[in-house]
Amino acid sequence: MARLAASLHIVTTQSGGCRHGLTVTAASSLSVDPMSLILSINRNAAAHKAILTSQKLCLNMLAAGHDRLAMRFAGAFGHRGEERFDHGEWLCEPNLPPQLRDAAAALQCDLVEAHGFGTHSVLLCAVTGIHLGPDRTALVYANREYGIVLPVAAEARDERCSRNGR
């Protein structure tokens, strides 16, 4: 699974007067109509119960340079709960999960369905709000390393297409 490249996100929620968040790679667009996404959360994650209780989450797509923030919310530095929010610029509005101001994109969502599978819950979420950040370069994780996706040069695309007979 380490070779399965994925964009990095911090999923946040608010429950019982506290903010909760964790780093995830298992998130994907589900449908445009209705606008929705699917994500997978380990049931042992501290934020899991809070997400199910609040029924609201924000999927904060991390941008280039957010690697330390991703590690922080993954627990790599030992931070838990509210401590994780001590870094990064967080927009906290009543009745909404925390939103990272400079995320590549932030999707506010309502939890529609949750299904157990193995060690995880698969969450189906309806997107209720979108914020596009200043940096369009998403942070990705593959082979246990952080990186960004660079576009293929036009010449390389043209050469590849001509070799394939297109």
Describe this structure in words.
This protein is of the alpha+beta class and 166 residues long. The protein contains three helices and twelve strands; from the N terminus they run βββββαβαββββββα. A seven-stranded antiparallel sheet has the order 3-2-6-9-10-5-4. The longest helix has 10 residues, at 154-163. The two termini are 32 Å apart. The model has no long low-confidence stretch (mean pLDDT 93).
Question: How would you concisely characterize the structure shown here?
Answer:
With 166 residues, the chain is of the alpha+beta class. It has three helices and twelve strands; from the N terminus they run βββββαβαββββββα.
Which secondary-structure class do the elements indicate? alpha+beta
Rg over CA atoms = 17 Å
Query: What percent of the residues sit in helical stretches (DSSP H or I)?
Result: 10-25%
Mean pLDDT: 93
Could you name the ranges where pLDDT drops below 50 across 5 or more consecutive residues?
Answer: none
Q: Note the beta-strand portion.
A: 35-45%
> Count the strands?
12
User: Could you state the order of secondary-structure elements as H and E?
Assistant: EEEEEHEHEEEEEEH
Largest sheet: 7 strands, antiparallel
Q: What is the terminal-to-terminal distance?
A: 32 Å
Query: Which overall shape is indicated by the principal axes computed on the Cα atoms?
Result: globular
Helical segment count: 3
**Widest sheet, order of strands:** 3-2-6-9-10-5-4
